[in-house]
Backbone:
DNA sequence: TGCGTCTTCGCATCGTTTGCGAATTGGCAC
DNA sequence: GTGCCAATTCGCAAACGATGCGAAGACGCA
């Protein structure tokens, strides 16, 4: 998204007002490379401006979204994530912990919708790609857990059914 | 997803029971090429079996999802969509009316996550692709609306601001 | 037919988001 | 600086999709 200074001009030009609440949110969004939820932004904004309302955060996010300054992302269940990164990019998401990261992807324009007839005249103008998998941390944690299970099984001779086995 | 008969065997083999509610849902899901919501399935199931509970629909969908018989999809806000199509495919979605269609896509394995270092060890094992755009119906409707506006503007000389202009 | 477990289903509840409207405030004209 | 007015904030109610819970009912097997 654009800088707080630029957004200030854009807002003014549209007859919208520059409030301290909006300034805080502009700044927070401009500075992050994450994909915060409304609640996360509310928490961060509350540090700088105690008393700011969650309602205002939602309202400002809706405005910025409709102005195209942020994208609203949805990954399955849970709250919406907001993406201030305006570059042409896609996402990877960890199945285990839900972590999201940006990823630049090559070869997108070589994707070919086959079976064009079944598209029935649909005209795509954008594409979202999400890679699903496991992040490095969760992979490490999983290996550690396996090691523990193995150790336990090897060490102990009791035929207990491991709790997390299924 | 598999046929109702096959699912019956699978369920029985796992000690799960075959109830009329499940049979109705198996059948509805097996026969559709759409991406129904829980509410939609509830409505359809209620036709064949008045009195079936929405709770049961949710429960059965959760089971089928965890068994891998259906996929749960999320497109922005709104309720989850369930996809009984087990083939390797992706989706197109109309920005205007929300309609969803399956699309087979070639070239998926030629996608290259660039900037591999910033992936920080993330290991993708699946990818979801959604094409965004406008479906044929909405494109037609939009053309028709534009024609109406043009006609009105041309015919009338009053400098009224069109209501839907912004 | 009888029993035990699995299932159904209504209701309460939860987490996220939006509707509403009174009170407040930014920005401009003077 | 002052006053005005539209834009904004914000608390609360409520919508919405989904889940937890547990009493009542039904499937499947002996
Ligand atoms: Mn992003
Ligand atoms: Mn599909
Ligand atoms: Zn993870
Ligand atoms: Zn459409």
Residues:
């Amino acid at each position: 998204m654009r800088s707080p200074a630029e957004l200030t001009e854009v807002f003014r030009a549209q007859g919208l007002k520059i409030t301290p609440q909006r300034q805080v949110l502009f700044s927070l969004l401009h500075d992050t490379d994450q994909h915060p939820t409304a609640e996360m932004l509310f928490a961060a904004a509350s540090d700088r401006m105690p008393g700011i309302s969650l309602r205002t955060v939602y309202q400002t996010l809706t405005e910025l979204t409709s102005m195209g300054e942020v994208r609203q992302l949805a990954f399955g269940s849970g709250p919406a994530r907001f993406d201030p990164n305006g570059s042409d990019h896609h996402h990877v998401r960890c199945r285990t912990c839900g972590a999201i990261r940006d990823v630049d992807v090559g070869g997108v324009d070589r994707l070919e919708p086959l079976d064009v007839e079944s598209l029935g005249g649909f005209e795509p103008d954008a594409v979202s790609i999400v890679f699903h998998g496991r992040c490095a941390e969760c992979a490490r944690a999983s290996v550690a857990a396996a090691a523990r299970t193995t150790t336990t099984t090897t060490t102990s001779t009791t035929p207990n059914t491991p709790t997390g086995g299924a």
Summary: Chain B has a mean pLDDT of 88.
